[in-house]
Amino acid sequence: MKVIIHWVRLFLLAALLTACAAGAGQRTADLLEKEHQVMSDEEIRAYYQSLSDQLARESRALRTSGNVGYGTGSFGVGATRGMADEAQVQALRERWNEVRQELRRRELMP
Fold first, then answer.
1. What's the pTM value of the predicted model, to 2 decimals?
2. What are the angstrom distances between the C-alpha of 10 and each of 5, 16, 52, 68, 76?
3. Cβ of 92: how many Cβ atoms within 10 Å?
4. Which terms are listed as keywords in the entry (predicted)?
5. Residue 78 Cα to chain centre, angstroms
6. C-alpha to C-alpha distance for 103 and 81, rounded to whole angstroms
7. Region for 23 from its dihedrals, namely left if φ exceeds 0, alpha if ψ lies in -120 to 50, beta otherwise
């Protein structure tokens, strides 16, 4: 019984890690699709904060990326894809800088 519980926990952990990896990439894509030039002042401030948060998450994931997995013998489960790649982080950083410049142009940021 303990062995079954152990394998169920490992499977759930693997599923969670995989879901997190997929969700992070989708959040980045969603953020990069938005047009910040047409946003209101409040919208662009919230967007800038979202970009900052996602950039921090993706940068941290890139620094700590590696394969995560559990298994013995010929059977294993795990997330083998890093949550971020350099291209995503660079794209986020470029958009973050563009939005920062727009905030300054609107005199919403010193």
1. 0.63
2. 9, 10, 32, 11, 9
3. 22
4. Signal
5. 18
6. 35
7. alpha
